[in-house]
Amino acid sequence: MGLPGFTASLYQHPTDQVLKIDVLRGARELSLDIPAVLALDRSDRLAELADPVTSRIEPLGIFGLNFDEELRPALWNVRLGSGVIVVGQAPGFNSVDTRLQPGDLIHTLNGTPIESVEQLRSVVTQLKPGDAAVLRIERQGQFQYVAFEME
Fold it and tell me: Which of 24, 57, 134, 142 shows the greatest Cβ crowding within 10 Å of its Cβ?
């Protein structure tokens, strides 16, 4: 079996069973019993922290969390230490398509620094249909701008 087949078999292996691997090292055969462990990316756990009511920012169609001291260890490559982290998408009837992704960190909206979910919700609800909006976000350690028009 080659590396692609080995990788596929690892993904298919039940996490509650010991993984048995037979290895040929030179002329010697080794048999290894390796306990399987389900490893989750720390950023995957952020969605579990979101409250469906208080974390939802309906106009943007997202769930967000305040990026604070508790969440900093989950995202090691963040360049600025404050903002609102997108933990999920929640498109609604009146939400705009911002193309925000889980893991994006929102730093500003139309130049206004964003420090909390409550502040982001307050600033975005002041925008009227047809208003232009620009978010400065951080995605995978890189700053980007996301522009859209309120509906």
Answer: 57
- Distance of CA 110 to CAs 50, 60, 75, 93, 113, Å? 25, 14, 24, 23, 9
pLDDT tens digits, 37-71: 766 555 556 667 778 888 999 999 999 999 877 77
pLDDT by residue (tens digit) across 69-104?
777 766 667 777 789 999 988 888 888 989 999 889
Residue 66: strand pairing partners: 84
Q: E strands within the chain?
A: 18-25, 28-35, 56-57, 62-66, 84-89, 105-109, 112-113, 132-139, 142-149
Contact 147, 120 (CB under 8 A): no
Neighbours of 140 (CB within 10 A): 11
For residue 77, CA distances in Å to 80, 127, 136, 138 come to 9, 31, 16, 10
The domains found in the chain, sorted by start residue, are 3-35 (no CATH), 42-149 (2.30.42.10)
Angle, alpha carbons 119-123-124 (nearest 5°): 115
End-to-end CA distance of the chain: 54
139 DSSP β-pair partners: 142
